[in-house]
């Protein structure tokens, strides 16, 4: 049915073979050494190269690596691993072009793979997902992983549907820090259906049978050491029956918010020598996504340059690298009537990690109507009070207004009375700037306000807190997924036919604790 090549591409090395290949890749990318020296700013610390043979891989060093060197090394590995995949894919396609070929994307900051770019080369985007939180955070992480996969799938070959598949997850365990947490009854089905709600073609697991020995002898499995006479196996059977009932679901997820994600910005914010060690593009994307998720606002993940038609609101978290094309992507969206909410650490550097001068946020100062002179990284346990009653973490800034107005100010410390969140009219649209990481409740209120002003409403405005609502469909019908992540029954106003029970719902769905409903909604 499907070829699965390799497993979790992401391993790198610094061997002589890799070093030679890296030099070839650099020559192809930059053309000549003068261009490379300029891109890497090698005039600093007298690092100027006069021969390609002088360039090695970025090995351990006494102090700080060159950021351009590090960034290009991650890009090199993304391209090199992709070439390893396509070599094997082409052998399989030559043997039987009718069978699709893919590989499983592994998620994590350590992975030097630009998954969106890879989407054009796989016949079906497939991901592995292992949540690390045992509380509601696992459901938040599930939603983000699914939205990332769906966003990457949009970059597939022209004419191909943006399909994706949950290829690997754990049936009955969550791998939390330092221990394996046993999933509660019903959680396997609920998390699997959450992926289907956000576009997955199904739900696959690793592994079928738990082994007696080997490194992963306690890894989660559909058939555990206890055998088929077990809760885990019985729940897997029920999940299979539920997935059969959902076979009719089709169409795209109804989302009117675009959430920007950029692999290279994630790599660049891992470099040493930054103002703080805890800066992380993926965590900022996760924080924004978490706030949207709790606000009931569905989003599609967008890579800089993606079309933004149909997305009144663009959320841009820590988009650190922004060349003129990326800055123009945000600027044109707002100028044409869209709304954008941009966070700190966006637009700071160009594609080679060189800082834009004359104040942060560099390439986005004009559209945001602010000019930042200084940053104030916060300690791990440090909080800064905001005038709306919330708090900020991770980061704060000295923000000067160059056209924007203050929405929320700093309420304490050296920044007391200065802007923390701003709003700027630019062309026919509106751009917000957030100079700190708001606490979750404050972030949710902020994004709800920005969405409301952009004309975007929650998927299911009357859904109680803790109930996830996702709508899929198109011109020929729609399906509403409702997932109760709470430990008590919940009632949600809705109507339709529940595919899981065949029950007809006229006014409201009554979900048991941890329950799931999938409604085929009335036409129109």
UniProtKB/TrEMBL annotation:
It catalyses: Hydrolysis of terminal non-reducing beta-D-galactose residues in beta-D-galactosides. Residues 255-456 form the Beta-galactosidase trimerisation domain. InterPro entries: Beta_galactosidase_C, Beta_galactosidase_Trimer, Class_I_gatase-like, GH, Glyco_hydro_42, Glyco_hydro_42_N, Glyco_hydro_b. Residues 466-521 form the Beta-galactosidase C-terminal domain. Keywords: Glycosidase, Hydrolase. Pfam families: Glyco_hydro_42, Glyco_hydro_42C, Glyco_hydro_42M. Residues 2-245 form the Glycoside hydrolase family 42 N-terminal domain. Its EC number is 3.2.1.23. The keyword Secreted does not apply. Belongs to the glycosyl hydrolase 42 family. This is beta-galactosidase. It comes from Micromonospora fluostatini.
């Amino acid at each position: 049915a499907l070829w699965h090549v390799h497993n979790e591409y992401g391993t790198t090395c610094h061997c002589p073979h890799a070093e030679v290949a890296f030099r070839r890749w650099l020559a192809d990318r930059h053309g000549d050494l003068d261009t490379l020296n300029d891109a890497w700013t090698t005039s600093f610390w007298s690092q100027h190269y006069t021969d390609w043979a002088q360039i090695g891989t970025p090995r351990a060093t006494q102090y700080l690596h060159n950021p351009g060197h590090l960034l290009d090394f991650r890009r090199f590995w993304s391209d090199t691993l992709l070439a390893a995949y396509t070599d094997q894919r082409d052998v399989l396609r030559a043997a039987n072009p009718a069978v699709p070929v893919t590989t499983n994307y592994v998620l994590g900051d350590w992975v030097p793979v630009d998954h969106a770019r890879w989407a054009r080369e796989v016949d079906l985007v497939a991901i592995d997902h292992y949540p690390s939180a045992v509380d509601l955070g696992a459901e938040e992480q599930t939603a983000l992983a699914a939205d990332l996969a769906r966003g990457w799938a949009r970059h597939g070959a022209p004419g191909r549907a943006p399909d994706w598949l949950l290829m690997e997850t754990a049936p009955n365990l969550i791998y939390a820090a330092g221990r394996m947490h046993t999933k509660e009854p019903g959680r396997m089905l609920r998390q699997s259906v959450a992926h289907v709600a956000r576009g997955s073609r199904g739900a696959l697991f690793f592994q079928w049978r738990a082994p007696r020995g080997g490194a992963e002898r306690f890894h989660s499995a559909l058939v555990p050491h206890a055998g088929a006479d077990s809760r885990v196996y019985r729940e897997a059977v029920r999940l299979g029956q539920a997935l059969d009932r959902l076979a009719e679901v089709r169409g795209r997820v109804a989302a009117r918010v675009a959430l920007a994600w950029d692999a290279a910005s994630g790599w660049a914010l891992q470099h040493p020598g930054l103002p703080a060690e805890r800066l992380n593009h993926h965590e900022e994307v996760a924080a924004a996504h978490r706030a949207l998720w709790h606000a009931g606002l569905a989003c599609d993940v967008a890579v800089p340059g993606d079309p933004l038609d149909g997305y009144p609101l663009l959320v841009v978290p820590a988009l650190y690298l922004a060349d003129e094309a990326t800055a123009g992507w945000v600027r044109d969206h707002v100028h044409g009537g869209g709304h954008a909410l941009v966070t700190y650490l966006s637009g700071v550097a160009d594609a080679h990690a060189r800082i834009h001068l004359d104040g942060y946020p560099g390439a986005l100062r004009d559209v945001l109507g602010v000019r930042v002179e200084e940053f104030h990284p916060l300690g791990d346990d440090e909080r800064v009070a905001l005038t709306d009653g919330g708090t900020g973490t991770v980061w704060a800034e000295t923000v000067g207004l160059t056209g924007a107005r203050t929405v929320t100010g700093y309420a304490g410390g050296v920044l007391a009375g200065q802007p923390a969140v701003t709003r700027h009219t630019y062309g026919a649209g509106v751009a917000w700037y957030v100079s700190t990481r708001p606490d979750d409740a404050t972030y949710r209120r902020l994004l709800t306000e920005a969405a409301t002003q952009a004309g975007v409403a929650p998927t299911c405005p009357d859904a109680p807190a803790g109930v996830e609502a996702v709508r899929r469909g198109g011109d020929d019908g729609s399906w509403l997924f409702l997932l109760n992540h709470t430990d008590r029954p919940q009632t949600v106003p809705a109507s339709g036919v529940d595919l899981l029970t065949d029950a007809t719902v006229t006014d409201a769905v009554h979900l048991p604790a941890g329950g799931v409903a999938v409604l085929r909604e009335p036409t129109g």
